[in-house]
Amino acid sequence: MNLLELARSLNIVETIKFSSGMLRNSKQNLKYVIVVDFEATCWKKGESPKWRQPEIIEFPAVLVDLSTQQILSEFHQYILPSECPKLSDFCINFTGITQELIDNNSVPLAAGLVKFGTWMNDLIDKFQLVLPNTSGSIPSVAFVTWTDWDFDVCLTKECKRKNIEKQKFFDQWIDLKATFKDWYKYRPKNFADALRFVGMKFEGREHSGIDDSRNIARLACRMVLDGAPLIVTKDVSPKCEKK
Q: Between the CA of residue 104 and those of 16, 37, 63, 163, 218, what are the distances in Å?
């Protein structure tokens, strides 16, 4: 019995069942989410010199239809780390990304962002996506990450170090971990623990960026079915910065 089932058996939480019609009439405005979960260079504790900072080595994204729970499109690109191009043994074992993959199948971050932008533009045209703060209309899609680290720390800091201009659509996102804690009143130890709490299991290889993204998407869909509203939790666009 998982934790959520135990809580329900003890009448600690209330179970609310939603029909598809009820979900369409709920406060959930988003129809889609784009889940991103970067993998970055890493080292065994105590083996990383102070000057080394994480560099993105895997850039995955999945577009999910929240009403059908179907993945409609995926983006996947390996990224060449320029500051420390040789992966540590720890990083290879942790992520499953080999040095050969990076040497033969990667592009610099700037080129990866351009390719991602092309993928995004195609999706915007095909599905008529409306991103947060891009028009006066209600957004139909938002980025989802597990914690703020991917966009607020990893991508932002690397772009600043390398003088790369990241697209403005990366300025708003949903931290699904924060939403999970607020909705279920439970603080998961990690992502696998969050899945266990709602009776789900990880599918694929943990710490593979694309598999992580797919599983975060699965959890987002489950949370919507449980009634959780998905709304932007972080906005770092210039107009939202403190004066």
A: 50, 22, 27, 25, 31
